[in-house]
TrEMBL record:
Location of the D-isomer specific 2-hydroxyacid dehydrogenase catalytic domain: 4-326
Annotated Pfam families: 2-Hacid_dh, 2-Hacid_dh_C
Name of the protein this chain belongs to: 2-hydroxyacid dehydrogenase
Family: Belongs to the D-isomer specific 2-hydroxyacid dehydrogenase family.
Keywords, ordered alphabetically: NAD, Oxidoreductase
A molecular-function term among this protein's GO annotations: D-lactate dehydrogenase (NAD+) activity
Organism: Sphingobacterium corticibacterium
Domain D-isomer specific 2-hydroxyacid dehydrogenase NAD-binding: 110-297
Amino acid sequence: MKIAFFSTQPYDRMFFNRENQDERFTYQFYETHLGPHIVQAVNDVDAVCVFVNDRVNREVIEVLASRGVKIIALRCAGFNNVDLDAAREFGIAVCRVPAYSPEAVAEHAMALLLTLNRKTHKAYNRVREQNFSLNGLLGFNLHGKTIGVVGTGKIGKAFCRVAKGFGCKLLAFDIYEDEQLKEMGVSYVDMDTLYRSSDIISLHCPLTPENKHMINNTSIRQMKDGVVVLNTSRGALIDTSAVIDALKTRKIGGLALDVYEQEEKLFFKDLSGTIIEDDTIQRLMSFPNVLVTAHQAFFTEEALTQIAGTTLSNIEGLLLGHEPSNKQAIVV
Ligand code: NAD
C-alpha cells in the first residue's frame, strides 16, 4: 500500500513511521502542499494523504484519478478543502479522522482564553526583563461569565465541559441539541440570543458554504460591547476585515485565533526574518488584545498518535474493501 503525504513536517513523519513498524505501507513524504503545481508528480501510489491547507480541487482530482489514485485521506477532521463532487465523479474515495482527542482542541481554546484574558504571555516576557509591574495586565474572572458555544459536536462538547469547570454559564447553538449537555446545564438558544447574551463566543462548528463569514459586521453589531471571540475551528468562519474594524472601535474586546482565512501561505512555516506580504494578519497581530497561534490546537501527543493510526486504518480498510469501523471516517 503506497501513500504520498503532502504538507508534511518532521512530526508527521515521526508519528506515521511509528504506526508503520511492520512496514505494510510504503511512504513518500512531500513538504509542499498538494496543488496543481505538484500533482503531475504523483505517480504509483494508492492514496494521497493531505492536511488542512492542501487545496484538493477539481483540477487536482482529475489528475489524481488519471494517475490511478484511489483514496484522498485527510489527516484532519474538516474536509472543506476537498471538492467532494469532483471526487465522487472521478471515483476517488475521501476519508478523514472524525475524532482525535477533541480535548486537545478544547483545552487549547481554553488556554487561548486564559492567556488573552490574564495576559500570561505578556507577564512571562515582562518578568524576564525584570519588570514586575502589574500595569496593563488586568483581567476578569471567568467564573460567572456567559460563554456562547457555536457547534456542540465533539470539540464544542469538550469545551463546554472545560468551561463548566470554571463556573461559566453556557449558551449553545447547534443544528442538533446534545441531551448530555442540556443535563449539564447548557442552554440551547438561537444565534441572535447567543450573540446578544455572550461575554465570550467560541466557534466549534465546521466551515460550510452557508456559514462562511458568520462573524461579520451584522453579527458583530448584535454582540455585547467588549465581547471576546475565540476561533479554533476554521479561519473563514470570520470575516477578518469586519473583526479588525470591531477591534478598532473596541466593540470586540479580545480576539484569539488558532485559524485564519489566509493561513495556508503562513502557518506551519518558519518565516522569521522574511517579509510578510499579508497586511491583514500583520494588522491583526498589531492589536494588543489579539492572540494568534498557528493552527496548533490539535498538536498533542495523543492527537497525533490517533491521527496517524486512524488515517492508516482508513486507507487500509478502503483498499482491502473492509467495512469502516467508524462510518463518519468515510466522506465519499
Ligand atoms: P463535529 O462534527 O463533532 O461537530 C461539529 C458540530 O457543529 C456538529 O454538532 C454540527 O451539528 C454542528 N454544526 C454544523 N454546522 C453548524 C452551524 N452552522 N452552526 C452551529 N453548529 C453547526 O466536529 P468536531 O470534531 O467538534 O470539530 C469541529 C471543527 O473544529 C472541525 O470542523 C474543524 O473545522 C475544527 N478543528 C480544528 C482543529 C484545530 O487544530 N484548530 C482541529 C480539529 C478540528
